[in-house]
Design brief:
12 helices, alpha/beta, binds iron/sulfur cluster, five-stranded parallel β-sheet
Length: 302
């Protein structure tokens, strides 16, 4: 099938019923990336951006796209990898993360669960035995990413979340009846200075297109999947969304666009946000006496 320019198509965009050749696909991808950054005011001149670099395809493509953007918009970039301590998985993605940073000559900082908390995720999962690895991982990773970005004096934390991730997040929050979490999607939980604002420049890019882009641009990606991913609620929602997208192309865009359409209204409704005090154990801001980070680590130290 041909691209509109007459060249051989390499990608078929189901949701747009369109074939694109390599150069038009790359051009469309880059244009959407820059438009997302611009429309949501994600970056400005002089920002210092910490990128959460796992070594997977999304964050590696994000790293390359941000590095490319730096040529037109002067901002600083530092890569931050969290090593949760997941045997057989994280060491391999760490190699990919390091390699991409070296290629682009970007400062790379690695922070590990073991060094910061005394425990690896593997040992926490073993000790807790509650079948909730992703919940524990998420709580610890969010804290370490935020605090490390703060220590690196970054004023933005960029993550590789893509359209699929966002569509899943929207549905998960609806299924859990937690609309207030959606209201906080764009910003940290409060304007509290302890939280580094997050940006997600790939939030309107489908996951499949990120993989194709990486391949066409020669960005080496690590395809391993975390061994704990199968326990996650997100995995169920992902499967459901992928099946629906297959039968009804464009569903993921529609879910995300519906959310973006009501985002302002949600922010107004939940404008107050949670009332924050300081954790009596670690002193970080939290909405309860002891924060989730400290509660997660209780009884897990080696
Ligand atoms: Fe952590 Fe779960 Fe992601 Fe694995 S799948 S890295 S355990 S959140």
């Amino acid at each position: 099938m041909k691209c509109f320019c007459g060249k051989e198509g390499v990608v078929f965009l189901h949701y747009a019923s369109r074939h694109l050749c390599e150069s038009h696909f790359i051009r469309m991808f880059d244009k959407r990336f820059r438009k997302t950054v611009r429309m949501r005011n994600m970056l400005k001149k002089g920002d210092r951006v910490a990128i959460a670099l796992s070594g997977g395809k999304d964050s590696c493509v994000l790293l390359h796209s941000l590095a490319e953007l730096q040529k037109d918009l002067p901002f600083e970039l530092v890569a931050l990898t969290i090593d949760e301590g997941i045997k057989g998985y994280r060491p391999k993605t760490l190699v990919a993360a390091k390699r991409e940073c070296e290629k682009l000559d970007i400062e790379h900082v690695i922070v590990s669960f073991k060094d910061e908390t005394g425990s690896t995720l593997d040992s926490i999962v073993r000790k807790k035995g509650d079948g909730l690895p992703c919940s524990h991982c998420g709580v610890l990773r969010r804290r370490l990413l935020n605090n490390s970005a703060r220590e690196l004096k970054a004023n933005k934390l960029a993550t590789g979340h893509n359209l699929d991730d966002l569509a899943q997040t929207v549905l998960m929050n609806i299924m859990r009846n937690e609309p207030s979490r959606l209201a906080r999607f764009n910003d940290p939980p409060t304007k509290n200075k302890s939280f580094v604002p997050r940006i997600r420049p790939l939030m309107l890019t489908p996951e499949k297109e990120i993989a194709i882009y990486a391949m066409l641009k020669g960005i080496e990606i690590e395809r391993l999947e975390c061994p704990y991913a199968r326990f996650a609620f997100r995995g169920q929602v992902r499967k459901m969304l992928n099946e629906t997208e297959e039968n009804y192309p464009g569903t993921k865009f529609k879910v995300v666009n519906s959310f973006l359409d009501i985002e302002d209204a949600l922010q107004k409704k939940y404008a107050k946000g949670p009332k924050l005090s300081n954790c009596s154990s670690c002193g970080e801001p939290c909405s309860e006496k002891i924060c989730m980070f400290c509660r997660t680590l209780r009884f897990t130290k080696n």
